[in-house]
Structures are given as C-alpha cells and as structure tokens.
Amino acid sequence: MRVHNFSPGPCTLPVDVLEEARDEFLDFAGTGMSIIEMSHRSAAYDAVHRRTIDLARSVAEAPPEFEVMLLQGGATLQFAMVPMNLLGTGEKAGYVVSGAWGRKALASASKAGGAYAAWDGADEDYRRMPAAAELRVEQGTRYLHVTSNETIGGIRMVRYPDRGLPLVADMSSDYLARRIDWGRFDLVYGGVQKNLGPAGLALVFVRRSLLDAGKDLPDYLSYAWHAESGSLGNTPAMFQVYLMGKVLERIAARGGTTALEAEAAARATLVYDAIDGSDGFYRNPVDPAARSHTNVVFRLPSAELESEFLSQAQRRGLVGLKGHRSVGGCRVSLYAAMELESVRELVDHMTEFRRAA
Ligand SMILES: *Cc1c(COP(=O)(O)O)cnc(C)c1O
What we know:
The protein has helices spanning 15-23, 43-60, 74-86, 100-112, 223-229, 238-254, 256-276, 303-315, 340-356, and strands at 4-5, 66-72, 92-97, 114-120, 141-147, 149-150, 155-156, 167-170, 185-191, 201-207, 295-298, 318-319, 330-333. The protein is α/β, with parallel strands linked by helices. It has a seven-stranded mixed beta sheet, sandwiched between helices. A two-stranded parallel sheet has the order 1-12. A two-stranded antiparallel sheet has the order 6-7. Strand 6 (149-150) and strand 7 form a beta hairpin. Helix 3 packs across helix 4. The radius of gyration is 21 Å and the shape is globular. Residues 9, 74-76, 101, 147, 151, 170, 172-173, 191, 193, 199 line the site of pyridoxal-5'-phosphate (PLP).
C-alpha cells in the first residue's frame, strides 16, 4: 500500500509515472533492453534526452536566449559552478542568506570566488525574507543570489529584490511551480528531486551570452562545455532524465507552471487554515507574508505532543512529517505530485489530534 508521503525530498512522484516506468523497465520502446542498459549515444536515448530538455524549456517558458542543461551533482554542485562560471577576476556576488540553503550556497561560493552575505536572516531565525532596500550591495557586485523557497525554514521569497543587478536563483523546492520573469535572471537552477523527478540532477537555465566566461574551466565544471554537447558531454544520468521527462509531460498536460502555482497555493492553504484555526495549538513561526507554499512548518505545545502527533500520523499512513533535525517540530512538504486528498487526510489528523489532546 502506498502511504501519504510528505517527505521533504526526495519525495512523492506521480504514481502513473512510476507505473509507466515499471511497465517499460525491461524493454524500452521495443529496443529489447532497459533504458538504463542502452548506449547514451543510441537514437532511442537521444530522443528521450532531447524531449526532456525541450519539455523543461517549454514548461518553464524559457526564452531562446537561455541554454537549458541537465547536470549531475544536484543543486549542491551548482553552488560551486555558478560562481566559478559567472565571476570574473575581481568580481563578487552578493548572497541573500535566507536560510540553510542560502547559507550553503554562500559557503561554496566563498571558496570558489568573491562572495559575501548581502543580507543574513540568522539573527531572526530565518523567519522572513528581506525587502530589496535591506540588502547591503557592495561595489563590483556581478550578481545577487537568492533562494526562492527555503525548504527547511518554510519561507518563500514572494518578490525578488530589484537592485538593478542580475539575479541568480536556487529554485529547487518550488521549481516550475511559479512563473519565472526571465528578464530579471542571468541563471536559474535547482535540484529536480522535489517537483520534477528523482534525485541526482540539476536543471540549469543560463543566459547564452554568459557561457563563454567559463570555457577554460575543467570540463565538467564548465557551462560552455555542457552547452556545446547538449548535456551529453559525458554519460548522463539517463534514468533520471527519462523519468523527469515523464513528470514534465504530466505537468505540461495539467497546464504548466500556472497550474502548478495554483495547485501549490490550494494545498498550502488547507494546512495553514488548519494551523490558524487551531487556537494556537499549532503554531507556524514564520512571517505570514513569507509563508512557503511547499514546506509548511509548525510546532505543537510540547515536544511530547509533537512526537505523539508524528507517531499517530505514521499509523494512519501519513509519513515524512518530522521537521528538519536543525529546527525540530513538524514539516509538511507539499510538492507538485502531492494529491489534495492526502492533504485533506493530514488536515483531518491535525483536527482530530487537537480535539483529543
Ligand atoms: C533540496 C535542496 C537543495 C539540495 O539539492 P541537492 O540536489 O541535494 O544538492 C538545495 N537547495 C534547496 C533550496 C533545496 O530545497
């Protein structure tokens, strides 16, 4: 039996995608072999690869001046590749440290080039996103880096800061679940294992005019190298690319980012309403204006009640609800494949547990 899987990532994927992958696993498209057994230079794989990239471009509505790449190493490798490729000598980048992920992005960038914190929410326990005017922008800043949604803290950047500088964004945990205003970005990236597929890949959009800057880097670290080969410079993560293609097909059929954005808001609203209507039994600690649509965090009146809440949830098939070890409490992750039915089941549990407590 499948559970209601609220895991923060990897996470639930569309069941029809999993079934289709199971059905074709031994013999893909009449080739007599599995997708993971064939040459990555074969016509059958090439079609899958190109289709996934084309779908990513069309769902994201990325204009032609952006190159679309599928790279291994997840979002974490991008924490290093972004500054390595974009920062010229003497240039630096300002990082908005809005939570654990922004902090990691800055830590890697500091080792790769000149990077500084343009804002740091640590003193306020990462409960809100900054206004543009709060950012401390240094002379010689090449780009500002933001995290669209902080997966651990449960906050979302509703408005991207405009300081007249190009933006770079880690969009891992609400990837393609909000429309992207491409004119504002030089680069957008994210691990795909929340909304889009299995772990191990980053989907990267880079403005083509910037590709040349990284051409002298070692092969795998260079966007120019990947762009030249259509992300086929080495053996790609074929199974991930294949599954992601299937997920993207479903997203496109559902109405793309506009549909995902509305669906995400609907799921999140159910849980926030349960929190707000609980007379303070459930507490969401973040700025109401920055509430995440994909990761809803909340506390109960005591650690004992929290662990009882989680174990009773587990018994009714509601899993993956424990908060990140760094913050505790509970966290409900509501990614693109999460069924509204599952969210309703969770909300029922929240209501019944509170009444019984
Ligand atoms: C999950 C996540 C990451 C990490 O991605 P990896 O693929 O594990 O490197 C980075 N940033 C954000 C915002 C995330 O949610």
